[in-house]
Amino acid sequence: LALFSSQISTIIKAVGAETAAIVGFSLGGMIVRRFACDYPNFTSGIAILHSPHKRTQLERKAVLKRVKQVEQFGPEATIDSALKRWFTSRFQSKNPNIMNLIREWILSNDPTTYSLIYRVLAEGDEELISTIQNIACPTFIMTGQNDYGNSPDMAINMANAMRDTHLNILPGLKHMALVEAPNKFNPPL
C-alpha cells in the first residue's frame, strides 16, 4: 500500500496541486486510507468505497484461499465466484455483455501482477487497523448491503474508528454497485 500511496503523492506534486480529495474503490479504498495517513497535508478528504477493513478470521481465510487459487491457476480461477460476489443474480442475468466484458478485463491481466495485487488486497487491511484512527480529513464511507467481502459491518467499524465520517450503506447491492446501480451509487458520493 505504501508504494501506491507514494505514487499518488507523486501525481499530486506533478500536477501542482496543494491538496486533493481522493476516491478509492475496493483495494483503492485501502490505498486512500494509507495515503491519508502517509500524506495528511496533501489530503483534503477521502472516499472509501466498498473496501475491506479488519476482516474476521473466516473472511481472511476465504480471501487467502482465492489468492492461492489465483497464484496457482491465474486470474481465470476466481472469475465465476467473483461475479457472484460482485453482482446481484438479477443484474447478471439481464446483462451478459457486461459480465463478458468484466471477464475479459480480468483475463487480460498479467497473471503475476494480478496475483501480487490480489495478495495486497487480501492482506493490506491488516496494516491499516492500527493507523485508521489517525485519519483526520473528512471521510465518506460507502458499501453495499450485500457486499460480503466489504461488508456493512466493516464500513461501520471504519466509521467508528475515525473522525469526521459520513457512512452510506446501499440497500440490496453488492460489490459492484457503481456498475449495477450508478443512479444509487453516484448521488451520495
Structure commentary:
The protein has 189 residues and is an alpha/beta fold. 56% of the residues lie in helices and 13% in strands. The protein contains 10 helices and 4 strands, in the order H-E-H-E-H-H-H-H-H-E-H-E-H-H. A 4-stranded parallel β-sheet has the order 1-2-3-4, covered by helices on one side. Strand 1, helix 2 and strand 2 form a beta-alpha-beta unit. Helix 1 crosses helix 2 and helix 3 runs antiparallel to helix 7. The longest helix is centred in the middle third of the chain and has 18 residues. It starts with a helix and ends with a helix. The mean pLDDT is 96.
**Structure class:** alpha/beta
Mean pLDDT value: 96
Instruction: Calculate the terminal CA-CA distance, rounded to whole Å.
Output: 23 Å
Strand arrangement, major sheet: 1-2-3-4
H-E order: HEHEHHHHHEHEHH
Number of helices: 10
Contiguous runs where pLDDT drops below 50 for at least 5 residues: none
Beta-strand content bin: 5-15%
What's the total number of strands? 4
**Looking at the structure, what is the overall shape?**
globular
Radius of gyration (Å): 16 Å
Helix fraction bin? 55-70%
Largest sheet: 4 strands, parallel
List keywords for this structure.
189 residues, four-stranded parallel sheet, 56% helix, 4 strands, 13% strand, alpha/beta
List the helices and strands and how they pair.
Elements: H1 2-15, E1 20-25, H2 27-38, E2 43-49, H3 57-73, H4 79-86, H5 89-94, H6 96-107, H7 111-128, E3 139-144, H8 152-161, E4 165-170, H9 177-180, H10 182-185
Parallel strand pairs: 1-2, 2-3, 3-4
Helix pairs in contact: 1-2, 2-7, 3-7
